[in-house]
């Protein structure tokens, strides 16, 4: 419950700052607009109004959603209830404090909500004026034009307001700004070489995407396969909002193509292969304390006297976190110390992941019920080389020109944004359903 | 791998099937073109059969080096090798067949974040020594130099220069004096220093600390840090070392006498004359040494205080930290 409350507070805080940005602007402008229209009625006017931009948005559409509406109405009801309670003379100090806290939380949302309702009223007014001017004389034609523009402008504003309102309702993932540990792994279907080949291409794609997004891309492990393929690679990607963009890349990616190299290339027919992407958010260094006593470090030199009596080129390091049994290995560098540092970073990421695991697992089960049987392990995307097409199975997003797509530039970015928006919508719906079914909103925790 | 038979194994086959039991003459160059991957697999197998240690890694590092990389991974393994590359790989791998350490074969290795040139018979730095550097660096950073005095460091037995150059590259203010009794080591340290553009802050002297200690004192005192990875193996153990070490590395860099303490005792005896007050000594030693060293110092060198023993990555007591006591006058 406490966590829930915290999440809500942070959401409201975000909402409030958003409203500060949105409300004064829209309110003032619209009021001015109305005033201006009223005074100008009957006068000649030759200026042009700001042209209305298309403000359509998928996220904004959610406003029409029944659950969201219900959720909003509930919140507004709660707000009105709190206002009423606050006016009552006999409430205890503790109650009052709780109510005021809730009130401050809800106020910004209530403001935007009122703004939307006012804008709708204005829109109605303009519409009725328009209706009245149908069949008017020639000199009024210009006024009619103005009214039409005005109406378009208001409805555009309403859409923007709605979109912002809905966006502000979307729960924030606290990990969004984290860096990530990204792993690519070849699948083990028949004709493994097609999977390994594809895994290397995927690796190159993410490297391209990191470049496109101006992120750091540091290779921790790279285990090549025959024919220029790739078994497994682990990289650390660091930059702005890396986890936010890459978290939905985790899962199984499928390839369909006629193999170019390797054993399966002898038969000229379409093969299907898979590879898996794992994306772990990487904690900020301070979040996690690891006691050195809890670690067991294995190296080639673990046995025997070591030191000057042994010369080896085996610099691999394996770190085991004894309490959890979590393991990380690195053999990327010729320096044992550098391998140790890398392995420690990987271990940190994995421990953090398992720490977050409980929370994430809970969210995933809830989401599974909502969205159907889908999790990270399911196929999320198909790369069909024969048809030169990439299809994302979650959104149905289709990208042509697979070569361009796998360069990891704008085409991939578009698809990722699309998935992200879709996931945000789902997350909001999930939240709304939980709230709607679970709790009586008029009762504070 | 089937292709072996066609172009190599006939050499051994003629001598019989048990070619793993004797050392083959170096295998002939392949007749046709081969890929890097084929070369890699071939030599791995051949090393294995010839009893060369770490066959897989040896083959990997040599092929990678011939292709111009540190690891073979970024290279395209499926591409065919040119005749020159193939010849180079065969030449280098044949060296490895004689048990020459990979680091000497490819003439370079990594130490911490530096890549250093390696050349026989100069001692190849071991991973434990990376931790010795870590230890010194941590202390240098925790105890910043008082006032304007520049921190100076003396290394006894610099070998390839790994310790001194790592310290220099991590501490932009530090000055280092490095000594070695071997002319080859002095040359190699100089070479590595100028390749890493660190030659301005290092003085390298060809001196034997055992016999020319006074000379060493006059060249560098006083210093705030003395660091050394001295020869610390017990003479009896030296005989049982792998041929990589025994045949190729300078025994003076390894053999510390019957108890492995000969050079260590000399360093600790001379140290008070070289160190500034509260200056630190950092030594890499054999795991059996720390208690012996502590005992010996307490009985023989009044000016030094034994601070602590530190373990290496595998939890062996590996490093000794000592400190020169502050002079009585200053304390009062």
From TrEMBL, chain A:
Keyword Protein biosynthesis part of the UniProt annotation: yes
Keyword Protein biosynthesis applies: yes
Lineage: Eukaryota, Metazoa, Chordata, Craniata, Vertebrata
Species per Swiss-Prot/TrEMBL record: Cynoglossus semilaevis (Tongue sole)
Chain ranges of the Prokaryotic-type class I peptide chain release factors domain: 301-317
Keywords: Protein biosynthesis
Record-linked PROSITE patterns: RF_PROK_I
GO biological process: mitochondrial translational termination
Gene3D superfamilies for this protein: 3.30.160.20, 3.30.70.1660, 6.10.140.1950
InterPro entries on file: PCRF, Pep_chain_release_fac_I, Pep_chain_release_fac_I_sf, Prokaryotic/Mito_RF
Identification of the protein by name: Mitochondrial translation release factor 1
GO cellular component: mitochondrion
Family named by the database record: Belongs to the prokaryotic/mitochondrial release factor family.
GO function term, MF aspect, one: translation release factor activity
UniProtKB/TrEMBL annotation, chain B:
Protein name (database record): peptide chain release factor N(5)-glutamine methyltransferase
Coiled-coil zones: none
Domain Release factor glutamine methyltransferase N-terminal as annotated: residue spans: 38-106
Catalytic activity: L-glutaminyl-[peptide chain release factor] + S-adenosyl-L-methionine = N(5)-methyl-L-glutaminyl-[peptide chain release factor] + S-adenosyl-L-homocysteine + H(+)
Enzyme Commission code: 2.1.1.297
GO biological process, one term: methylation
NCBIfam families: hemK_fam
UniProt keywords, alphabetically: Methyltransferase, S-adenosyl-L-methionine, Transferase
InterPro entries cross-referenced by the UniProt entry: DNA_methylase_N6_adenine_CS (IPR002052), HemK-like (IPR004556), N5-glutamine_MTase (IPR050320), PrmC_N (IPR040758), SAM-dependent_MTases_sf (IPR029063), Small_mtfrase_dom (IPR007848)
One Gene Ontology term of the molecular function aspect: peptide chain release factor N(5)-glutamine methyltransferase activity
Main enzyme class: transferase
Annotated organism of origin: Cynoglossus semilaevis
Positions of the Methyltransferase small domain: 135-233
Keyword Metal-binding: no
GO cellular component: mitochondrion
């Amino acid at each position: 419950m406490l966590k829930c409350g915290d999440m809500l507070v942070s959401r409201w805080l975000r909402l409030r700052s958003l409203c500060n940005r949105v409300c004064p602007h829209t309110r003032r402008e619209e009021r001015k607009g109305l005033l201006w229209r009223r005074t100008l009625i009957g006068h000649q006017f030759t200026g042009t109004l700001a042209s209305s931009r298309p403000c359509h948005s998928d996220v904004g559409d959610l406003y029409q959603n029944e659950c969201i509406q219900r959720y909003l109405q509930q919140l507004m009801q709660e707000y009105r209830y709190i206002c009423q309670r606050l006016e009552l003379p006999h409430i205890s100090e503790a109650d009052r404090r709780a109510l005021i806290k809730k009130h401050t939380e809800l106020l910004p949302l209530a403001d935007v909500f009122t703004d939307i309702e006012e804008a709708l009223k204005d829109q109605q007014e303009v519409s009725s004026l328009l209706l009245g001017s149908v069949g008017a004389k020639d000199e009024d034609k210009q006024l009619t034009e103005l009214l039409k523009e005005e109406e378009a402008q208001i409805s555009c504003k309403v859409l923007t307001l709605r979109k912002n309102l809905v966006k502000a309702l979307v729960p924030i993932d606290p990990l969004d700004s984290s860096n990530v540990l990204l792993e690519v792994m070849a699948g083990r279907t028949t004709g493994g070489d097609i999977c390994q080949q594809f895994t290397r291409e995927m690796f190159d794609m993410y490297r391209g995407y990191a470049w496109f997004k101006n992120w750091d891309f540091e290779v921790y492990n790279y285990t090549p396969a025959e024919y220029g393929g790739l078994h497994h690679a682990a990289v650390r990607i660091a930059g702005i909002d890396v986890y936010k963009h890459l978290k939905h890349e985790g899962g199984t990616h499928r390839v369909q193509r006629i193999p170019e190299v390797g054993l399966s290339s002898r038969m000229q027919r379409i093969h299907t292969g898979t590879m898996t992407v794992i994306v772990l958010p990487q904690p900020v260094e301070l979040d996690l304390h690891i006691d050195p006593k809890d670690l067991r470090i294995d190296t080639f030199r673990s046995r025997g006297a070591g030191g000057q009596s042994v010369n080896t080129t085996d610099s691999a390091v394996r770190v085991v976190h004894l309490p959890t049994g979590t393991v990380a290995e690195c053999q990327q560098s010729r320096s044992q110390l550098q391998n140790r540092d890398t392995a420690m970073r990987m271990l940190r990421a994995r421990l953090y992941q398992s720490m977050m695991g409980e929370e994430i697992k809970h969210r995933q089960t809830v989401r599974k019920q909502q969205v159907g049987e889908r999790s990270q392990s399911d196929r999320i995307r198909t790369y069909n080389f024969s048809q030169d097409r990439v299809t994302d199975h979650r959104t149905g997003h289709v990208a042509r020109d697979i070569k361009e797509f796998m360069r990891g530039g704008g085409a991939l970015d578009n698809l990722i944004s699309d998935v992200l928006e879709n996931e945000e919508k789902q997350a909001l719906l999930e939240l709304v359903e939980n709230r709607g079914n679970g709790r009586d909103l008029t009762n504070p925790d | 791998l089937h292709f072996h038979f066609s172009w190599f194994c006939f050499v051994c086959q003629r001598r019989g099937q048990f070619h793993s039991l004797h050392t083959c003459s170096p295998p002939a160059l392949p007749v046709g073109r081969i890929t890097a991957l084929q070369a890699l697999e071939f030599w791995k197998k051949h090393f294995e059969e010839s009893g060369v240690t770490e066959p897989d890694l040896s083959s990997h590092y040599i092929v990678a080096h011939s292709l111009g990389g540190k690891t073979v991974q970024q290279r395209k393994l499926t591409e065919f090798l040119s005749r020159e590359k193939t010849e180079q790989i065969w030449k280098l791998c044949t060296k490895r067949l004689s048990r020459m350490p990979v680091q000497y074969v490819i003439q370079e290795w990594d130490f911490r974040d530096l890549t250093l040139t390696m050349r026989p018979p100069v001692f190849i730095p071991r991973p434990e020594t990376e931790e010795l550097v870590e230890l010194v660096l941590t202390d240098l950073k925790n105890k910043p130099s008082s006032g304007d005095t520049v921190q100076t460091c003396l290394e006894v037995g610099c070998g390839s220069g790994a310790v001194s150059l790592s310290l220099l590259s991590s501490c932009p203010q530090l000055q280092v004096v490095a000594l070695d009794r071997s002319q080859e080591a002095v040359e190699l340290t100089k070479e590595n220093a100028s390749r890493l553009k660190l030659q301005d802050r290092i003085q390298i002297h060809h001196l034997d600390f055992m016999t020319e200690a006074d000379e060493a004192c006059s060249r560098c005192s006083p210093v705030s840090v003395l660091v050394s990875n001295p020869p610390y193996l017990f003479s009896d153990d030296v005989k049982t070392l792998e041929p990589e070490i025994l045949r190729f590395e300078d025994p003076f860099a390894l053999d510390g006498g019957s108890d492995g303490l000969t050079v260590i005792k000399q360093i600790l005896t001379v140290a008070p004359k070289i160190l500034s007050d509260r200056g630190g000594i950092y030594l890499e030693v054999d795991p059996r040494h720390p208690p012996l060293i502590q005992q010996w110092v307490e009985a023989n060198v009044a000016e030094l205080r034994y601070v602590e023993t530190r373990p290496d990555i595998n939890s062996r007591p590996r490093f000794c930290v000592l400190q020169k006591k502050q002079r009585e006058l200053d304390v009062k």
